[in-house]
Amino acid sequence: MKHYPVIIIGGGASGLFLSSLMKESLLLEKNAECGKKLLVTGGGACNITHDEAPRDLVLHYHEKKNFVSTAIFSLPPERIREYFASLGVETYIREDGKVFPTTDDAHTVRDALLNGGRIVTGYEVRTLKKRDDLFIINDEFTADAVVIATGGMVFPQTGSTGDGYRLARQFGHTIVPLRNALCEIRVDRDTSALEGISLESATLKVGKHTMSGPLLFTRRGISGPVALNLSRYVEGETDIVLKLCDISAVEIKAESGKTKCANALHHITGLPQRLINNIIPSKDRNIASLTREDIGKIIEVLTAWRMKGNTREQTRYAMVTCGGVSTKEIESRTMESRLCRNLYIVGETLDVDGETGGYNLSFAFASSYLACRSIAAR
Ligand SMILES: Cc1cc2nc3c(=O)[nH]c(=O)nc-3n(C[C@H](O)[C@H](O)[C@H](O)COP(=O)(O)OP(=O)(O)OC[C@H]3O[C@@H](n4cnc5c(N)ncnc54)[C@H](O)[C@@H]3O)c2cc1C
Fold it and tell me: What is the 348 CA–ligand 1 centroid distance (Å)?
């Protein structure tokens, strides 16, 4: 069996980043090429991080702010940018704070990470065992330290098919239930006529969680940042409430009685005419003919449109996995397993998911950086 000090399982964002830092490592990737998911990030342009102070950046990881803090503070956005610059990848900050390579091409990022340790592609890790102080992989390689960087279970067409959960379970790790996240929410209303309508700001409530921001209607539901970020809270059929605007009965009644309802609502709210025409029941009546009950219904649709949402069919399209290896069992300063010495778990395999905007790659890189620092210190 061939021995390496460090073996990295998975050549995605986190595995490649670690490999680029550790010349003495061996990286095993099951696909014929590394970083297939990295290549589709940011619409192929690769949104590598977000230009934000670490104390603000950590707020984009939902309930995992504390767990990700050491990683994010140790490798904040400017250090990620500096590191890529040292590899020859210049970056720029978009108006909304998202950071991309100046080439707007994810290949630039992926290729820059290929010149670290040894990489073997087309090699699937099926078994991982530990005997005394040595890890044994597929009865073919041995290592002093192993890093599981196999990603999550969404978008499996890029290779992340949940293998890391199985490997981690063998060492006693708990897998927090897995859900699709950063994905479209399908709703039980016919939204086909609304497809393509985007709103700069809407307020969405999913279960107990509320968020405001840009929203996009799709053929079968809702997407856009606010729906993507809240999709992690959808479990089975979940109650969702959509607030499109603020409007009161007084404002509606103040419009001229002869005005067509749809026109009046467009005038008051600024919402797109196509949206109003398709969701308001009394759209063709004039204002004077509306009863108190009619006005109540209009206000309800615009300010508290209730529907049921689900994300069941989104596994192939979701951008991140919610759930994964329990962070309670991982040392947050090093990413080392608390259950097995010298076993490290990084990136999306962990029960950490960030919002859309470069946060998931930031954590993939930063968690690998901590693992590297810890392994190097041994
Ligand atoms: C369409 C899309 C767009 C995205 N855009 C962005 C973005 O712009 N910015 C952002 O921050 N995040 C983005 N993300 C999320 C981000 O890509 C992931 O969170 C990140 O890639 C996770 O990195 P990882 O290394 O943990 O896993 P991955 O990148 O999924 O890598 C895991 C690797 O492990 C390999 N592997 C799995 N099992 C085995 C095995 N048994 N043996 C050997 N190899 C194995 C896989 O083939 C894969 O290459 C996007 C995701 C998607 C799907």
Answer: 7
